[in-house]
């Protein structure tokens, strides 16, 4: 009788472990199939990764240099002109990055795991949602608010809290990531998922630089106001 009870007690745990193991193997098989569908040696794919990594590094370094030296302000003859120049540069390298990404996806293979009508529809929804976040954020912030105007001393009077900032802390970055992911799913390209992951992690790293520094800029502004 005791032996039967012990067997009864062990069976549920064993069944649970088998299910977990089966799920783990299924996930590993899916990941393996997706990875095998990526041509990592493609020069266009590698260029897309490089562009994705370069852009946030570039604008953060340039913005920090401007904050400490006012080099763009001096070169362009004013803070607003300097900010507009940086904005145009960031916009252009963003267009180049997107073109390189789209070109890279064309020569990458599709994968049956993420192809089909439902995946394409999901991709369109994610891409559309991403664009809404990006464009509405730009509309709310304006050019100087979007393109690092605070590093030029062009500060906003108060924090923007309306849409899209009431649904997303960083709508520009999150919207851009969703757009990359949406394009990857729409085309059924695992390589796009890899690039989307790089976009996500690069923006996470960028925020670790930007958020504390921006908070410091506004804290200094508020402190200066109190001392007046």
From TrEMBL:
Catalytic activity: a 1,2-diacyl-sn-glycero-3-phospho-N,N-dimethylethanolamine + S-adenosyl-L-methionine = a 1,2-diacyl-sn-glycero-3-phosphocholine + S-adenosyl-L-homocysteine + H(+); a 1,2-diacyl-sn-glycero-3-phospho-N-methylethanolamine + S-adenosyl-L-methionine = a 1,2-diacyl-sn-glycero-3-phospho-N,N-dimethylethanolamine + S-adenosyl-L-homocysteine + H(+)
Organism: Saccharomyces cerevisiae x Saccharomyces kudriavzevii (strain VIN7)
InterPro entries in UniProt: PEMT/MFAP, Phopholipid_MeTrfase
Binding site for S-adenosyl-L-methionine: 128-130, 210-211
Pathway connected to this protein: Phospholipid metabolism; phosphatidylcholine biosynthesis; Lipid metabolism
Localization annotation: Endoplasmic reticulum membrane; Mitochondrion membrane
Entries under HAMAP family matching the protein: PLMT
Lineage, opening ranks: Eukaryota, Fungi, Dikarya, Ascomycota, Saccharomycotina
Regions that enter the bilayer but do not cross it: 43-63
Described purpose of this protein according to its UniProt entry: Catalyzes the second two steps of the methylation pathway of phosphatidylcholine biosynthesis, the SAM-dependent methylation of phosphatidylmonomethylethanolamine (PMME) to phosphatidyldimethylethanolamine (PDME) and of PDME to phosphatidylcholine (PC).
Protein's recorded name: Phosphatidyl-N-methylethanolamine N-methyltransferase
Membrane topology value: Multi-pass membrane protein
Main location class: endoplasmic reticulum
Keyword match Transmembrane: yes
UniProt-listed Enzyme Commission number(s): 2.1.1.71
The keyword Mitochondrion is assigned to this record: yes
UniProt similarity note: Belongs to the class VI-like SAM-binding methyltransferase superfamily. PEMT/PEM2 methyltransferase family.
């Amino acid at each position: 009788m005791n032996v039967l009870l012990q067997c009864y007690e062990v069976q549920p745990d064993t069944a649970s472990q088998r299910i977990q193991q089966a799920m783990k193997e299924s996930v590993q098989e899916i990941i393996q199939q997706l990875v095998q569908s990526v041509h990592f040696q493609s020069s266009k794919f590698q260029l897309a990764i490089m562009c994705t990594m370069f852009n946030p590094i570039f604008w953060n370094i340039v913005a920090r240099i401007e904050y400490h030296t006012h080099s763009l302000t001096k070169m362009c003859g004013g803070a607003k002109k300097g900010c507009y120049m940086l904005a145009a540069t960031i916009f252009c390298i963003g267009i180049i990055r997107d073109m390189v990404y789209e070109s890279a996806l064309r020569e990458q293979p599709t994968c049956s795991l993420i192809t089909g009508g439902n995946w394409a529809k999901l991709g369109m929804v994610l891409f559309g949602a991403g664009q809404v976040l990006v464009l509405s954020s730009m509309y709310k912030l304006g050019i100087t608010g979007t393109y690092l105007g605070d590093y030029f001393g062009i500060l906003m009077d108060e924090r923007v809290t309306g849409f899209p900032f009431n649904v997303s802390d960083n709508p520009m970055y999150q919207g851009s990531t969703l757009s990359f992911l949406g394009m990857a799913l729409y085309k059924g390209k695992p390589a796009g998922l890899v690039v989307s992951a790089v976009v996500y992690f690069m923006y996470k790293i960028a925020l670790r630089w930007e958020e504390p520094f921006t908070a410091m800029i506004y804290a200094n502004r508020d402190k200066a106001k109190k001392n007046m």
